[in-house]
Design goal:
single chain; 8 helices; mainly alpha; globular
Length: 251
């Protein structure tokens, strides 16, 4: 199997977790406390993967300065785009309650939510593809982090879309499209970085890491805290420790 195709399949696997979460939300009434708890767990998993499988490896491979620059650029770019999307109705795109606006409340919000979901998913897919470049196979810990975090993301966001009166065609069209885009992003990440220097690879990886961490703080933690409150920190810590254990055991 060619490298770019394998990368695309790993990206598709991560994106498929979003579709699975959306399907559960559409046909099963999951208590919001459960959704928020899994969201908090997924946030901890992602933070651990960022720290030990992205930022640390970027710094060791390409140097501290490229990593710092990339991380700041990624975080800043995410915030800038997210501000624009929030003004167009996508601020609460991962909320499972009735915070998401319908088209009658905010025209164009459906498109903004779809773009926001794409913004959240592409950076991690690029990293999945790039992780294959070392020849040692994809990072088990990062794949686990993406799948574990994407499941509650899809579940929570789809529940909110349903509450806002959006159709099944819209919901599954968005998440199916994001799954395919994740596959393409992973394949492109592999292809584009195949001949890149360690410094360039560190910058790209750090850009993705900065964007992902900002996404966790801006969209995942607020949804988790709204329902789990004082348990949010504990559940997030358990997620962090789980991903750390997977990373060390696999390494």
């Amino acid at each position: 199997m060619t490298g770019w195709l394998e990368a695309g399949l790993w990206g598709l696997l991560g994106g498929a977790a979003l579709v699975l979460g959306a399907a559960v939300a559409w046909w099963v009434r999951v208590p919001r406390f459960v959704v928020a708890s899994v969201m908090a767990f997924g946030a901890g998993v992602l933070v651990s993967a960022l720290a030990f499988d992205l930022v640390l490896e970027a710094a060791e491979g390409g140097g501290l300065l490229p990593t710092v620059v990339g991380f700041v650029v990624g975080a800043g770019a995410y915030v800038a785009v997210n501000v624009v999307l929030a003004r167009r109705g996508a601020r609460h795109r991962k909320r499972s309650g009735d915070q998401q606006p319908g088209e009658d409340e905010a025209a164009g919000s459906g498109g903004a939510i779809a773009v926001g979901a794409l913004l959240d998913g592409v950076p991690e897919s690029v990293v999945l593809g790039a992780s294959l470049l070392g020849g040692g196979g994809v990072s088990t810990a990062f794949v686990a982090a993406v799948v574990i975090s994407n499941l509650p993301e899809g579940l929570s966001s789809a529940a909110g879309m349903k509450a806002a009166g959006r159709s099944a065609r819209y919901v599954f069209g968005v998440w199916g499209g994001i799954a395919l885009a994740s596959a393409v992003a992973a394949a492109l990440g592999y292809a584009a970085l195949g001949g890149a220097s360690p410094e360039v690879t560190a910058v790209i990886t750090a850009v993705a890491a900065g964007a992902i961490l900002t996404m966790v703080a801006d969209t995942m933690i607020p949804e988790a805290f709204e329902q789990t409150h004082l348990l949010t920190g504990l559940i997030t810590a358990v997620g962090f420790l789980t991903a750390f254990t997977i990373s060390r055991a696999g390494g």
